[in-house]
Write the structure tokens for this entry.
Amino acid sequence: MNAQKNTAPLDRYRTMRRIRSFEERVGELFLRGESAGSMLHLSIGEEAVVGVTDAMGDGDTFTTHHRGHGVFLGRGADPARMMAEIGGKADGYCRGKGGSMHIASHALGHLGANAIVGGGIPHVVGAGLTYRNKGTGHVSVAFFGDGAMQQGILYEAMNMAALWRLPVIFCCLNNQYGMGTRIDRAVGKLAFGERAEAFGLQAAHADGTDVEEVHDTAQSLIADARGGKPGFLEISSFRFYGHARMDKSPYRTPEEEEEGRKRDPVLKARERLIESGLGSDADMERIDTKADDEMDAALESAVTASPPPLDTMFEDVFHPDSPAPAPQRDRLRAILTETP
Ligand SMILES: Cc1ncc(C[n+]2csc(CCOP(=O)(O)OP(=O)(O)O)c2C)c(N)n1
Ligand SMILES: [Mg+2]
């Protein structure tokens, strides 16, 4: 029992450190011109979400917003396959056709990232309804940003979850910004939890610099959700960098960024582990080096991997019973039959 308690914080540190390292390298993939999409959103500063992903169980499902790499890694994603996906390569989770903002894996319970703000929220209500009706005991968690708190779909979903007592958690990753707009310029009332309570949900807040606080809070909410008491969890953090990889945050002062980056969940977890004697400096160095090596390898394998063959362009994109639209299909046929 004790051994389990002692290793879990170290495991969470390891996962957070792997996320940090992944995000740094995927940012490099983008700058090297090797990423398939035109946008890339890094979750650096938001790694304490591992407190939630660690509190979820086998078979539980989730959806993410456009900044969901950390969540997926927290649920056991293979970083090489993620990097390949973001690089548009055939080895990726969606054969390179989803990219960062539409990555999914049913095997790992990832019901899909979604580029539409709030777009992934209703899916967990559908999943939760299935779990309740079939009595599977599973939970589905929607991860989204503070921007989605202003989307109507969230409130339709909250109402249904509360009304039908679904095993669902709404998890708001409040990083203080929606693109270039600071939250206090976008929201009249910042007490998000009170909104959730108004719909009949159980609400909680956790400090996003403290992965153990996030974990304890999430564990209790998820246990209640499994019993038919859906919940809302807000995790406060600071978005360390721009909205997307190319955004240099001209709307923030250097002082604000410097202060904000002091709210570092990875550093805080590291210091705590050392202070409490759960790991030595050397242990931490080993974890850090291993994470960096793993992500260096993921980056290089994504760069050298092959893209999907051109003639599979429409596979996995359109339902087999509804063929690709004629103009695109004919253009592809012309390209494939062209002799150079
Ligand atoms: C419905 C909709 N409106 C606007 C956009 C453009 N957009 C993309 S990300 C974003 C900000 C989202 O902020 P937040 O939800 O806080 O997530 P964060 O980027 O901070 O993680 C906006 C407005 C969109 N993708 N979808
Ligand atoms: Mg935000």
